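name: query_chain
kind: protein
chains: 1
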Amino acid sequence: MADDEVATKAPESDAQENLVAGDTPAQEGASMGVYITKPSDYPHLPSKLLLYLSSGTGIHSTNNQLQADKYASEGYVVVMPDQFGGDPHNKAASNPASDTNPSMIEKVKMGLADAAKSFTIDMWLARHTPEKVLPLLHKVIEGAKDEFADAVANGGGLYAVGYCFGGKYVLLLGSELPDTVAKGQAVKDEEQGVVKAGPQIKAGAIAHGTMITKEDIEGLKAPVTMACTENDQLFPDDVRAEGQKYLVDNNIPHEIQVFPGVPHGFATVGEYEDVKIQEAQKAAFEQMLSWLQSH
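structure:
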């Protein structure tokens, strides 16, 4: 388990490089390793298998590891794969100028820094698409189900949680999709008929998802809960509203809670001084855990 003494202050900060890849079936599925954390009494007492899909900071982030550990302490064998092939996105921790009344030159510097940051994020996202991520996840899932077959049997299937980047992929794994799409491929010939596959999970929970589209939600079949941030540009309110309408109209079990006044990324372990953020973080975890336990 991760050492909470070295937790970074913000969940989206630079990752801590403290993970050594192993060679178990689950770990062989990911090109750069898998973080696995288990209940202290496993396998002596029954557990359930949980796929943890992290933010862009990846499996080496101490915050992500600590968040995964929280689920392990609640009775889940947690498998957190490297979704990025050793290429996580580590955001800068601070702005180039901290003056509350910056000069014109400082404003220009800040604007250039923001533009460069946005370009870097766009380039990184372009390298990590469903076509690349889904095949990797399927390999890890196959290995994890084999390695932890007892936990799969005990839970009646695979559960999944996703934070930020990982939220989109929980929705895709919980969807019924054309078989080729589910495997990260394009549909080659729709006229020949499409064989659908999925869902791959029994139930899912996501927090402040990133780059989610209404199409990601419209294939959903598995029960899902969402802990969302108000006015989140990475998961806009209108997309969420359209997605919720689909879930209601199609009787898909779901729960959506919107947390106002908190930043994107609030639900991942982090040492926030703002009591409101601390309370929202605790509430989001309880929401997601309760959903998993009841499905």
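note: The chain is about 40% helix and 15% strand.
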